[in-house]
Design a protein that fits this description.
Catalytic activity: L-seryl-[protein] + ATP = O-phospho-L-seryl-[protein] + ADP + H(+); L-threonyl-[protein] + ATP = O-phospho-L-threonyl-[protein] + ADP + H(+)
GO cellular component, one term: membrane
Bound molecules: 2-acetamido-2-deoxy-beta-D-glucopyranose
Mean pLDDT: 79
Number of domains: 6
Strand order of the largest sheet: 29-34-31-32-30
Distance between the termini: 75 Å
CATH class of the largest domain: Mainly Alpha
GO molecular function: ATP binding; protein serine/threonine kinase activity
Radius of gyration: 31 Å
Strand content: 25-35%
CATH superfamily of the largest domain: Transferase(Phosphotransferase) domain 1
Largest sheet: 5 strands, antiparallel
Low-confidence stretches: 1-24, 431-494, 777-808
InterPro entries: Bulb-type_lectin_dom, Bulb-type_lectin_dom_sf, Kinase-like_dom_sf, Pan_app, Prot_kinase_dom, Protein_kinase_ATP_BS, S-locus_recpt_kinase_C, S_locus_glycoprot_dom
Subcellular location: Membrane
Amino acid sequence: MKTSMEGYTILFFCSLLLSIFLTSTATDTITMSQPIRDGETIVSAGGSFELGIFSPDSMKRYLGIWYKKISIPTVVWVANRESTPLVDSSGVLKVTKEGILQLLNRNGSIIWSSNSSRWAQNPVAKLLDTGNLVVIDEKDDNPENFLWQSFDYPCDTLLPGMKLGRNMTTGLEWHLSSWKSTDNPSPGDFTYRLDPQGFPQFVVRDGSVEQFRSGPWNGLHFSGFPDQIPYTTYNPHFVFNQKETYYTDELCNDSVVTRLVLNRNGIIQRFSWNDQTQDWDLSQSVPKDNCDNYAICGAYGSCNIGNSQDYCGCLKGFVPKSQQDWDISDYSNGCVRRMPLNCGSGDGFTKHSGIKFPDTRYSWYNESMTLKECESLCLKNCSCMAYTSLDVRNGGSGCLLWFGDLIDIRAFPEDKKEIYIRMASSEIGMSLSLKLDQVGSKKKKRVWIIVSLALLVGMVFLGLGLTLFVRKKKKLSREGKKGHTVERGYTTEELELPLFDLATVANATNNFSINNKLGQGGFGLVYKGVLEDGQEIAVKRLSKNSRQGLNEFKNEVIHIAKLQHRNLVKLLGCCLQVDETILIYEFMPNKSLDFFIFDHTRSILLDWTKRFQIIIGIAQGLLYLHRDSRLRIIHRDLKAGNILLDNKMNPKISDFGLARSFDENETEGNTKKVVGTYGYMSPEYAIDGLYSVKSDVFSFGVLLLEIAWRLYIEGKPLELIDASIGDSSNTSEVLRAIHVGLLCVQRCPEDRPNMSTVVLMLGSESELPQPKQPGFFNERNLVGTDSSSHKHEPCSTNEVTITLLEAR
Ligand SMILES: *[C@@H]1O[C@H](CO)[C@@H](O)[C@H](O)[C@H]1NC(C)=O
Ligand SMILES: *[C@@H]1O[C@H](CO)[C@@H](O)[C@H](O)[C@H]1NC(C)=O
Ligand SMILES: *[C@@H]1O[C@H](CO)[C@@H](O)[C@H](O)[C@H]1NC(C)=O
Ligand SMILES: *[C@@H]1O[C@H](CO)[C@@H](O)[C@H](O)[C@H]1NC(C)=O
Ligand SMILES: *[C@@H]1O[C@H](CO)[C@@H](O)[C@H](O)[C@H]1NC(C)=O
Ligand SMILES: *[C@@H]1O[C@H](CO)[C@@H](O)[C@H](O)[C@H]1NC(C)=O
């Protein structure tokens, strides 16, 4: 007791001494007569940044700059990362009379030094409040006259005001390079730098291999970062001319702390400091999924992460170059034209939107041309494959032309920027007539879908290659790599489901500790667990005497074990040992959708872009169940609580305890026992026990309305929507989603669209049919069972809604 008291006293005196000591040297300047030693620091005038010698591991010491006001140590710049570190605490930083900064070790050898281009009378080094360490002639802090600045030598962090790009006059190049590891700041394998060929873009490389491309700047943002807007805290700037090309962030509010980092895994992340939580908020992270991998689908291939079959497809009018390769999920050879170009006798262009613009390495641009001039210039040159406006602001200006094959394209359904791709005129005629069919009658629409499917041969073959895809996907998908556990246990022959050992499961869940409990269902408890290899799992344990539970369990296993889709929760295995019945799933860190949308504060976290992604994901998952899965399944209990969210807020449909499969011919079932959740249940199911894909569509409609309607109606929403993209097209997207939702909850099942139509309707801008009266469960009795009767007036709110939808 006594010794610890003494300890505290000593500690107290030490910290007192330290604070006196620190305040006495709290200057922002190093002069020739006042070098700094290890343990001493300088602090910028406003107190934002601090410079000194730090040690990421116990052996090596580096000169660096970090945030002063932030409780989490965050180094933003390191001087001697490319040379040798200091090995003891005798390092000294001084300014020479030539205006050069030198870092010296115990022996007085120079470990690192800066440069200077000019002579100065009285050079000093000063740490500015931007985090920039500059060498200036004393009292002359005009940026034009800096003798040297650390902002010219970025490490892994881009602070507001720093530049990324190139000064053609001086030859200076600014790029980011990752740290080798969290405790080693020397340059790692990844770089993020300007590629000046063609229209400039930024590229993340691993060594010399392209990993990710920012895409071309379109006046507002890079094509590969469609969700970068809006900027409320900083303004991105991209400057390009003959003399210099660079990107920079400009702060709108000096009290905001934001940084862009190239992390040691090659991921570009934007962090902003959150004063409330005292932590960094991650607001952006690219590459964000497999589709961001450079050229993953080859030339003219487009990667769509929402595809139910596989990520890669061909652009419209293109087919896989080698169907064989495509079948085994080798997309590197990409796609080729179905109809060859006929340059002399007039090709044309088809408009595409919702994609990341192709690699601009072989491109040409002109800032003053109009889009019309751009088109005719492209048409004149047979190797010009696409064109677009250079700058989308003010209705579009300038011209960007692509030469040679178009590569590294991905789908960004929410991005409306347009690009025009060269096509044979015969191809353009055909797609026009298809479009006309599309606006025709219902029957024609089906014909259109069939025709277009037949035309997109690539897609069909993708469907055939499903099993191969499942195996191959592992190779392609980073997530897949850690997710698959087939090798872990034996597989039960019938279900191809890995078996887990009870001891393993008990171990992973701390012996089913109550602290690991995630939730409780009618059947038993759900626990969180961590396997020995670090993989997180969710463990559903059937309580010992639940017969109902056992049936649902079996049902779940039978249905889900054979399904593989990114929007369905993945069953990793099961454990049937002693008298235990346990299912093991992938773990979903963000809980379920109801956790977000029904909670006033959490609901704010879900902006429209995320909501729309969630809607699309659920629709894709359901479409897969209804149409594309081996079993063809009706879920029967679709609701917000059964939509789980992964760490990227991707939705995954879960809980197949009530699911039923049906044959191709049989599209409607009948049950005496109505199970499910009222509120989501279609009237024909709740009352007559009739279930079909259309009862799932109904539940989907309710979900869609819950997701979209709440955002829309709660007042704040329109700001939210607008703020989340800064583009009024979002408002119309919300209204469109609501409109589709209303179509899904129509009273008669025949009137409701099927899921493939829903997916089409959500993803296009075509005109939507007028919704009829919705079939709410409690209304059915009033209106009567004759569902074709529309004598009763629909309630006025619905009418208002519908008019509202039309007015926009
Ligand atoms: C300093 O010099 C001595 C001998 O000249 C050498 O052995 C030692 O490694 C040097 N230390 C550093 C830190 O360079
Ligand atoms: C210093 O300047 C010289 C010539 O201007 C250049 O070759 C060298 O790379 C520079 N060194 C640093 C560390 O910037
Ligand atoms: C590029 O260098 C020239 C000449 O030193 C200078 O005038 C110009 O401001 C520099 N541009 C940038 C963006 O630093
Ligand atoms: C700047 O940000 C701070 C804290 O986020 C806020 O209190 C202040 O009102 C903002 N100032 C302006 C001009 O937006
Ligand atoms: C860009 O287009 C304008 C208008 O057509 C033309 O006057 C100008 O010469 C072009 N610039 C280049 C570099 O081709
Ligand atoms: C077409 O454009 C390419 C790339 O700019 C150029 O090399 C070629 O000479 C052009 N061909 C014609 C006929 O203008």
